[in-house]
Amino acid sequence: MKDFAPTYAISLIAAFFAGVFTLVLYQRWNPPIAQVDESPTLDVVRLQPSPGLPSFAVKFTRLPVDEQAVEPPVLQALEVEKIRALAGKPARIRGRIFRVGHSAKSNTYFLNFGPSRSALTAVIFASAVDLFEQQKLPPKAFDGRDVELRGDIKDHPQYGLEMVLENPSQIKILK
Question: What is the CATH number of the domain that holds 154?
Answer without folding.
Answer: 2.40.50.140
